[in-house]
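Predict the structure of Bulb-type lectin domain-containing protein.
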Amino acid sequence: MILSHKFSFRHSCPDSPLYGLPGKPDGETLVSTNGVFELGFFNLNNSTNRYVGIWYSQISVPTYVWVANRESPLTDRSGVLTVTTPGVLAILNRTNGTVWSSAFFTTPAPNPIARLLDSGNLIVKDADDDGFTWQSFDYTCDTLLSGIRLGWNYITGVETYSSSWKSDDDPAKGEYSSIVEF
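Done. Here is the predicted structure for Bulb-type lectin domain-containing protein.
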């Protein structure tokens, strides 16, 4: 058991990939093999809004490096993070409605899993393939980790840029962005 920054116990296991349904409910986390990064649900300060994100797991002050649903928080602890066939990473609410997903940005994977790498990059991949079909590094927030490449990716058609949070209590896109133009 790991004691999280909000003083609640979380069940986690290093390098356990996330397979399909039922997924990881709020309160369970994925930890990178090196133990540096952790993925799970969190809230900010006294807010009841819940987000799925990646943070440094060994730092006492919460330091979030990526937030999936930064524009669409859950309002309670009913959320589940899952990866579905054909390889869509999704956050579901209590009625199994999709709050956020990678659906528009995913290449199909017949046997999909999600894995949190030692770099802090969350990837979705086919369990039988070495490549990945989606990665969080293409959808950065306000933190640039080693391995993130800003700019236009001509292979995926994705423009990667960083953007500030709206406020300390709201990870939605803020007023400032860092964009690479050629």
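The chain has no helices and 17 strands.
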